[in-house]
């Protein structure tokens, strides 16, 4: 049994050594050119940046829709004492003028 396993192991080793040069190619093989890959991905990156910039400019130039102010629900702003920075919330802004401009 041991002879059979040894012979089978040697035959497998010979087949893998002979066949590995013909069919096994990894990323580190001699045919793989890293400089060309780097140039390719650099061009893809620059093209992606250009496309994203154009789409952002287009989306920002369209403007946005103004929605009406929500109804004043009294339970949303219950305050039992003032904040240290004043009566309004930190990111709240009370309208100083009533001419309709934001």
TrEMBL record:
Subcellular location: Mitochondrion inner membrane
Signal peptide positions on this chain: none
Keywords: Membrane, Mitochondrion, Mitochondrion inner membrane, Transit peptide
Low complexity composition bias: residue spans: 1-18
GO biological process terms held by the UniProt record: mitochondrial electron transport, cytochrome c to oxygen
Top-level taxon of the source organism: Eukaryota
A GO cellular-component term linked to this record: mitochondrial inner membrane
Coiled coil location: none
Main location: mitochondrion
GO molecular function annotations of the record: enzyme regulator activity
Keyword Nucleotide-binding: no
UniProt region (Disordered), positions on chain: 1-20
PANTHER family xref list: CYTOCHROME C OXIDASE POLYPEPTIDE VIA, CYTOCHROME C OXIDASE SUBUNIT
Name of the protein in question: Uncharacterized protein
Biological source species: Digitaria exilis
Taxonomic path: Eukaryota, Viridiplantae, Streptophyta, Embryophyta, Tracheophyta
């Amino acid at each position: 049994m041991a002879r059979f396993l040894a012979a089978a192991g040697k035959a497998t080793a010979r087949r893998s050594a002979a066949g590995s040069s013909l069919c096994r190619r990894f990323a580190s093989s001699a045919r793989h050119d890293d400089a060309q890959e780097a140039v390719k991905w650099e061009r893809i990156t620059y093209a992606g940046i250009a496309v994203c910039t154009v789409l952002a400019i287009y989306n920002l130039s369209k403007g946005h829709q103004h929605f009406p102010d929500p109804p004043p629900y009294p339970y949303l702003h219950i305050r039992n004492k003032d904040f240290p920075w004043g009566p309004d919330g930190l990111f709240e802004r009370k309208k100083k003028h009533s001419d309709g401009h934001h």
